[in-house]
Design a protein that fits this description.
By secondary structure, the protein is mainly alpha-helical. The chain contains 21 helices and 6 strands. It is elongated and about 100 Å long.
Length: 460
């Protein structure tokens, strides 16, 4: 006999090692959550039908009855999920199990018993599923993944402000380049993440509610006098709060969730880029990691404090993107009017979201334990007089000195350059005295352009 599922025997780390980190996702992405959202769609459709005044056989329900019906999903408990699962095991159909669960509860309410066949009226399972999934995905992304990414930005902002005026040696192709400030470089990431979060937020998931193959066949044969396309569109847009897709096969084609997955993958790629750079800055000594009592960095080297939070975040973002891009590539495909390949795929979208959620928690944790080593950055930059080659040759261009780039290339490329050698070169230039003095007084730590101002205004 198998043991009860615990964090120690779970196969998937999302529900095992990371169970405490992913607990907040369960109300949105678990099997029980899917039952709850299906229940919501079924009940709201039943109430909507009753309140339409278009169906004589289903008079408008009073407020008390509507509140009772809604309480079945608003107060959904684990015991309810267990009951639905028991029905599913008997009939081997997950959506029909929700319908039967509702009918069983209606049987105990005398004035609802005779109306129970309007539960799931004219619906195919996909009508219920695609709406339920859209609702749970939107809520999960907003309340967990994006809320956690917003916390990353919150912890990035103090580092941007502290480092706004701290000169730092830039590196292009891994080689010394024109100076910047630490705050400006971190601001780049904050703005990229913020813009991408806005793109994710702008995506409205579409839903269909048009029957077995998208033509309202059952609807029209039962009540031909009702304008079902308009009636159902109103239900999706005004009652369920989703965008409407009126042209489908049996399934909603998933184009919007595909767009969401790709945009999330892009956001995660920005997160990975940030993780890699933070790891590298820690390696250079530009950040020190705050020691945590009783924490072990290495099993054999006692001195080590490894940047494990950034490594953990990067690894989980890699997993999230691997799943998201695979799902996004396959979900739009369906044989003819319907196949069930997407059913398995859709159940794993929550796993992809979970890896993103874990990653942003690790990234937040990593940012919280950083201390900037301004002295180390200044020492590195002050030793790199060759980064002023760009400044000098650009000023030479202004004053029409021949071959400025070539002369600085000869002086600096592949050679150690000291302050004395650079000043000796400046003295040879035919420049106005004030300009020459400006270049002679210029130090690598002064040559930062608008980096400080850009960093300080990045959050405005």
């Amino acid at each position: 006999m198998s043991s009860p599922l615990t964090e120690l025997n779970a196969i998937n780390p999302v529900d095992g090692r990371y169970a405490t980190k992913t607990a907040a996702l369960r109300p949105y992405l678990s099997e029980a959550a899917l039952f709850k959202y299906r229940l919501q769609v079924e009940i709201e459709w039943f109430i909507y039908l009753s309140q339409s005044s278009k169906i004589d056989e289903l008079p408008s329900l009073d407020e008390t009855t509507c509140a009772l019906l809604r309480s079945w999903y608003l107060q959904f408990k684990e015991a309810d999920a267990v009951s639905i699962k028991a029905i599913e095991k008997k009939i081997n159909h997950d959506v029909k199990a929700v319908e039967y669960f509702i009918k069983e509860k209606m049987a105990a309410v005398p004035h609802l018993h005779s109306k129970q066949e309007f539960i799931h009226f004219a619906c195919t399972s996909e009508d219920i599923n695609n709406v339920a999934y859209a609702l749970m995905w939107q809520a999960a992304i907003r309340e967990t993944v994006q809320a956690q990414c917003a916390r990353v930005l919150k912890h990035l902002q103090p580092l941007i402000e502290q480092g706004a005026s701290m000169p730092m040696l830039a590196r292009t192709h891994g080689q010394p380049a024109s100076p910047t400030t630490l705050g400006k470089e971190l601001a780049n990431y904050a703005l990229r993440l913020q813009r991408q979060m806005e793109r994710v937020q702008s995506i409205r998931l579409r839903a269909k509610f048009n029957g077995a193959v998208g033509n309202y066949n059952a609807h029209r044969i039962a009540y031909p006098e009702i304008d079902w396309p308009h009636f159902n569109q109103t239900f999706i847009e005004q009652i369920m709060g989703l965008a409407w897709n009126g042209y489908t096969t049996q399934i909603e084609p998933h184009d919007d969730i595909v767009a969401l997955l790709y945009e999330l993958a892009h956001q995660n790629s920005i997160g990975m880029d940030l993780c890699q750079d933070m790891w590298a800055y820690i390696s250079l000594g530009y950040f020190k990691q705050i020691a945590v009592a009783n924490e072990v960095g290495s099993s054999t080297m006692p001195h080590k404090i490894n940047p494990i939070d950034f490594e953990n975040a990067e690894g989980n973002l890699v997993l999230a993107n691997a799943l998201q891009t695979t799902l996004a590539q396959r979900l739009p495909l369906s044989r003819w009017q319907r196949d069930l390949v997407d059913s398995t795929l859709l159940r794993n979208i929550g796993v992809a979201f979970a890896y993103s959620f874990i990653a942003y928690q690790s990234l937040e944790k990593g940012l919280q334990r950083l201390a900037i080593d301004e002295a180390k950055m200044k020492a590195d930059l002050s030793a790199q007089w060759d980064v002023l080659a760009e400044a000098i040759q650009t000023v030479m261009r202004r004053y029409n000195i021949e071959e400025p780039y070539e002369k600085l290339k000869t002086l600096t490329r592949g050679k150690p350059l000291t302050e004395a050698l650079l000043k000796e070169f400046i003295h040879t230039l035919d420049l106005p005295k004030n300009v020459k003095n400006q270049l002679l007084s210029l130090r690598p730590t002064d040559y930062i352009g608008y980096a400080k101002e850009l960093a300080m205004t990045s959050n405005s």
